[in-house]
Each structure stands twice: as C-alpha cells, then as structure tokens.
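Journal club prep, notes for RB
We'll compare a predicted complex against what the paper describes. Inputs for the iron/sulfur cluster case:
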Amino acid sequence: MTGLSDSFQRPINYLRISVTDRCNLRCAYCMPLDGIHPMPHADILTYEEIYTVAKAAAAAGINKVRLTGGEPLVRLGLPELVRMLAGIEAIDDISMTTNGILLARYATELKSAGLRRVNVSLDTLKDERFRSITRGAYGVADVLEGIKAAKSAGLKPVKINVVVMAGMNDDELIDFAAKTIDDEWHIRFIEHMPFGDGASAASFVSVNDMRKNIETLGQLEPCQAGVGNGPAKYFRFPGAKGTVGFITPVTEHFCFQCNRLRLTSDGKLRPCLLSENEIDLRKPLRSGISSEELKLLIEKAAACKPLQHHLSEGRVPKDRPFSQVGG
Ligand code: SAM
Ligand code: SF4
C-alpha cells in the first residue's frame, strides 16, 4: 500500500488541525460550565509551525485538511493560514468546521485563500434556546448570515452539524429536516458523545430514534455524500434539494473506516479523538527537527492509531474538553 496507513492497514489521508482552543461561544455540551483555562499563547503553534507540520504530513500521504478549534475564526489572520496550506501541492481539499458566527465577515476572503467548503454547527433554530445552549452574546441570525455568506462565496456544500440531545433540541428534528426539502440545506444529525459536563445517559438520543422521528415527515431514501467521504450516511426526501445525514459515533462506530489524525493547537498529534494518547510535535519543531524526522513522527502517530474507541464500555478521554481536541 502506498501513502500513509496505520497498523490495521487503514489508509490515513486526513488531518484535522485545531488552530485555537479559544471560542466565542461556550456550548453547554462542549465547554465545561466554568469555561476553560486558555492555553498560554506561547504554547500554541504559530501558522508557520502548522504549515511545517502540514507539509510533512502531505509528504507522508495526507491530502485533506480540516481547520477546527475551539472556534477557528477567532484566530486572527486565519485566511493567511488557509493560503499557506493551499500552497502545499499534495493537499487538494481544505475545509473548516465553524460555529458560523464570524463567517459572514470572512467567507469571501477564505474562499479566495483556497478554502473549499465549510461545516457550520447549529443546534437550534430558536433564538432564545440558541443563547441558552451557547451561553454567548450571539443569536441564530448571526449563524444564518454566516451560512448565507458562505453559500454566496461559493464555499459549497455548506453542511449543517446538529448535535442532538433529549430535552435540548430533539423537538426540532422535523424543523431542521424540513429545511432540506425547500432550502437546499445539508443537515447532519450527530449523536452526542459523552464528554465532560454534558455527559448524561438521559439526554442521549440514538440515530435510530432520530430517524423514526424525522420519517414522520416522509420516507428517506439513501443517497450519495456529494463532496467529502466522512462517516455520515446520507438520505434525501423524495424531490428534496438538500440531504439528511446521520453520524453515529456511539451506536454504530465507524472506527474501521477512520482515516484521520488530529493536531491540537498546542502541537500534539492525536491518533484518535477518543484516546488520550498524543505525540508531541511542538518541542521537536522548536528544536529544529528536520522535515524527514517530522514525517517519521507523523508516521509513528499513524501507527499508534487504536483499532477502535471504547465509548460503549464507558471509556472516555478525560485529559481535554472536546473544544480542545476539535471534534
Ligand atoms: N467551534 C467549531 C464548531 O462549533 O463548529 C469547531 C469546533 S467544535 C468542537 C466541532 C464540532 O464538535 C461541532 O460540530 C460540535 O457541535 C461538535 N461537538 C462538540 N462536543 C460534542 C460532543 N460531546 N459530542 C458530539 N459532537 C460534539
Ligand atoms: Fe465553541 Fe464549537 Fe465548542 Fe460550541 S462546539 S463551544 S462553538 S468549540
């Protein structure tokens, strides 16, 4: 097999880069109630360091990169990083996961820097509820403006990520699903992973239950993913312009198809979202490691990928909140 692969022969071609641990929201299921202690700025990789890692990763076999956070758009000058990454020949897909709040401001600049597409997180269409979930100073209208701006800038497809929790937003599944019929929304409903504060069995909703609820609107037909080959399974209502996707990290894990490595904002390479194992790249980067040695470290991280996570046995990482790993 050519390119990068792990010890279970899974091809690894996707790097998710968390560019910051900071965020302009504090979603109840993602951030601890008392917020996070932000990392010192000196601990966070510079754009130049991120570029160096991405270049070595590309030499190892990575061709897809996603920027995430925290909230990636709160880091100043992010389009410049996109431009740097777009200049790496082997990388042919740069995307971003964002809460959308700052997207209206940056969409055009991001597109011309080389960003291809965005996933926008939006868990409710009700403004008061949005403010309560996100515990911030913004409203649904800010996110909707961001989605509109992303579409008109050509950052397509815009996929909307909805983490579903009982008592939080499970009464809105139909409202979201209806938006795929007339408004060409591409919605992905995600099972909540039991990290930190938001972890309660009572609030968990399985994709099976979500689907039963949504199908009261009509029969869903399987369809192709469009762009990207992530873990979601896609469906469409007959005649609908948009799609309904489901992501089942808990009830039907997709570890056997996992193609990812994650880089945290403080420079640790994390072979699995749901394992605490990390390989430090920051110290070697700041001690003048060669690109060949860096590539070897990236290959070592790929080789350490576990076969699967152990959420079903209640084993969850406790070292970092979700916002620090990037989702
Ligand atoms: N701030 C950006 C955003 O919200 O899109 C990027 C970072 S956020 C950590 C990435 C994704 O992780 C979001 O779609 C968020 O809803 C999701 N997420 C956070 N905590 C989660 C959890 N416990 N289970 C499932 N998804 C989660
Ligand atoms: Fe911030 Fe995204 Fe976490 Fe919400 S889900 S607190 S927007 S990092």
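Talking point for the session: The pocket of S-adenosylmethionine (ligand 1) is lined by residues 23, 29-30, 68-69, 71, 97-99, 121, 161, 163, 190, 192-193, 195, 198, 322-323, 326-327 (CB under 6 Å).
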